[in-house]
Specification:
- With about 120 residues, the protein is mostly helical.
- About 50% of the residues lie in helices and about 10% in strands.
- It has a two-stranded parallel sheet.
């Protein structure tokens, strides 16, 4: 169980997003016969971004299992780029929050979902 939102974001970024993103990048590059492209990982927690970019072991992060520090290695090797995304740019809000019609339609369009008309 995560002790803070920073830890939860960091673990999610390392365990799911970074691992799967790097694997997909490798798979696509292998199938296309090209060089692996870096994965751009967008996070909304500035503390988690700072923790992922800083290889120094802090007292606040010493309880995080070493397997979750994989994201640091990926950033150092250039396989993953971490950037901040604000609340307005969070596409996942469509799945987790109650939204007004305008915001819902905007996020739905950003995801590429279109309304199908029956004939």
């Amino acid at each position: 169980m995560a002790l803070s939102s920073c830890e939860a974001e960091y673990v999610a970024a390392a365990a799911a997003a970074a691992c799967q993103g790097v694997w997909l990048s490798w798979l696509i590059a292998d199938m296309m016969g090209t060089k692996e492209a870096p994965v751009k990982l967008l996070m909304d927690n500035m503390s988690a971004i700072a923790l992922s970019r800083n290889p120094v072991h802090h007292d606040r992060s010493k309880h995080i299992d070493t397997k979750f520090h994989f994201i640091r290695e990926c950033i150092e090797e250039g396989k993953v780029e971490v950037d901040h995304v604000g609340i307005a740019g969070q596409l996942t809000n469509i799945f987790t929050k109650s939204l007004g019609r305008v915001k819902f339609m905007e996020l739905r369009g950003a995801l590429g979902v279109v309304q199908v008309q029956q004939v």
